[in-house]
Amino acid sequence: MGKNYVESLKLIDKNALYSPAEALELSLKTAKAKFDETIELAIRLGVDPRHADQQVRGAVVLPHGTGKSVRVLVFAKGDKAKDAEAAGADFVGAEEFVDKIQKENWFDFDVVVATPDMMGVVGRLGRVLGPKGLMPNPKSGTVTFDVKKAIEEIKAGKVEYRVDKTAIIHVPIGKKSFSTEKLVENFHALMDAVIKAKPAASKGQYIKSVVVSSTMGPGLKVNPVKVLE
């Protein structure tokens, strides 16, 4: 363990269940790296991701964004391509980007948006975009004819959440440079969205545990009861 990590551990009680505000405030105090660390949530859910009817996936616009500059690649043609360029997309095109990704292993983007009529083209990239979590999806609002709205939301701080095979959701909610108040508002926006996305097939306790951490700092356990208040 590094010196900073050891010092950070002295500030927390590993057995405590903190309120969201307490956990986020401590996460800022334990973020001792020289760079602007990301503050992230790990939410363990009472679902079985092996079943299709217990998948939890969606997107939410965080009130204060993530603090990260997001590069958007849009697959569109004609007027929709012009709309995407006007809305601030970083890259706009069609087959040429499929070739660039396949042949040059090019991944200088963070989010992919596509119009529905382009999904046949984008589908050829399923094997490379899928494992990276970059495949456009209607549920997350990244397959749409309203590319302007999609890009504006992404640039404003829209984040996707998706339960992994261990029933955990990992999502960034801000940076060390954020105030506690901004992180708290982002925290509640995300948690509200995840709670609303509870599958009907999920039985028993839905929110099993919530842990807040900075990139280089220790995890802080949030009281699940406080999350629901």
UniProtKB/TrEMBL annotation:
Give the source species. Clostridium oryzae
Q: Which Pfam families match?
A: Ribosomal_L1
Instruction: Please give the Gene Ontology molecular function terms for this protein.
Output: rRNA binding; structural constituent of ribosome; tRNA binding
Q: Which GO terms describe its cellular component?
A: large ribosomal subunit
Spell out the coiled coil positions from the record: none
| Signal peptide range | none
Q: What does this protein do?
A: Protein L1 is also a translational repressor protein, it controls the translation of the L11 operon by binding to its mRNA.
**GO biological processes:** regulation of translation; translation
How this chain assembles, per its entry, is: Part of the 50S ribosomal subunit.
Out of the domains of life, which is the source? Bacteria
Recite the UniProt keywords alphabetically: Repressor, Ribonucleoprotein, Ribosomal protein, RNA-binding, rRNA-binding, Translation regulation, tRNA-binding
**What protein family is recorded?**
Belongs to the universal ribosomal protein uL1 family.
Name of the protein in question:
Large ribosomal subunit protein uL1
Q: Which Gene3D superfamilies match?
A: 3.30.190.20, 3.40.50.790
CDD domains, alphabetically?
Answer: Ribosomal_L1
Q: Which PROSITE patterns match?
A: RIBOSOMAL_L1
